[in-house]
Amino acid sequence: MGYWLFFNSFERGRDALLAKNYTEALRLLEPWAKGGMAPAQTLLGIMYERGDGVQRDKAIAADYYRKAAEQRFAPAQVALGVLYSSGDGVPRDDKLAAEWYRKAAMQGSPEGQNNLGYMYEVGSGVAQYYDLAVYWYRKAAEQGFGPAQANIGQLYLEGKGVPKDDTIAFEWLNKAAVQEVAGAQTNVGYLYLMGQGVKQDDAAALSWFNKAAALGEPVAQRNLGLMYYRGRGVEQSNSRAAEWLKKASDNGDEPAKKAMEEMAGAGIISGT
User: What's the CATH code of the domain at 63?
Assistant: First the structure.
């Protein structure tokens, strides 16, 4: 009974972390982490990476992740890979990142599979190989992992590693979109707008652009602005067009910024 009472302290520490009671989480999780428990080490790594209740220190986070990763704990392997990909807390090393993603992927981690697929797609830390990108994205996508569904859908749109197929692209992107993957929502909106892989539907396009725009996705914000400017699926409104284009521009979307400059130059909207 003593063991189970002690183990319960880990669960209470995990729950405290979820409740953002960081002082209690640290008190309960640290003994487990120091004792070598991989899930506790991973949670402490998260706390140090984010600065939750402790001074933010990604080097300490990496150390905790490594301890857990070396015990074959897949979430820690992914987290350590992400640090190597970004060079946070460790020297940037795309090859090591790919190695850790692979270890997690081989254990069935959808996050590891998706990240490894991305490495193959862009040729980071591994040779660029679209077929393997598709392979790993599919493994994660078939587990219902939204980002991987978005990624494999994008490859079908572009015909990379698979024959170009807008219908299959729409199917995967739609699966991701309903999970609130903003980029997928934008792409689904675009496919409805253009009638690619699905029946053309301005109202559906507008709906998906609105969902993505609310999540801060700049391309969706730009597309909303253009729909208002052209009066497509909505009542034409230069003011609403300018509103959405400005949001997209403020989020770094250069085509939106250019569109605003052209509209201002033509006297359609006031200069900003």
Answer: 1.25.40.10
Q: Which residue has the tokens 């749109």?
A: 157
C-alpha–C-alpha distance, residues 237 and 51, integer Å: 45
Q: Kindly state the tokens that stand for 207.
A: 């709906």
Structural domain includes residue 238: no
Any domain includes 70: yes
Q: Burial level of 208, CB count in 10 A (0-12/13-18/19+)?
A: buried
DSSP of 184-221: HHHHHHHHHHHTSSS---HHHHHHHHHHHHHTT-HHHH
For residue 11, which of 28, 31, 27 has the smallest C-alpha distance?
28
pLDDT at 233 over 80: yes
At 44, list the tokens. 């402490």
Name the token pair of 136: 């790993």
Q: Could you tell me the end-to-end alpha-carbon distance of the chain, in angstroms, rounded to an integer? A: 68
Domain that holds residue 5: 1-92
Please return the burial class of 5, using the count of CB atoms within 10 Å of its CB with bins 0-12, 13-18 and 19+.
exposed
Residue 62 lies in a domain: yes
Q: Which two tokens stand for residue 167?
A: 């219908």
Number of domains in the chain: 1
Q: Residue 250, Cβ neighbours under 10 Å: how many? A: 12
Spatial contact of 185 and 215, defined as CB atoms under 8 Å apart: yes
pLDDT tens digits, one per residue of 8-67: 889 999 999 999 999 999 999 999 999 999 999 999 999 999 999 999 999 999 999 999
Instruction: Please name the residue ranges forming H helices in 142-269.
Output: 146-158, 166-177, 182-194, 202-214, 218-230, 238-250, 254-265
In-domain check, residue 272: no
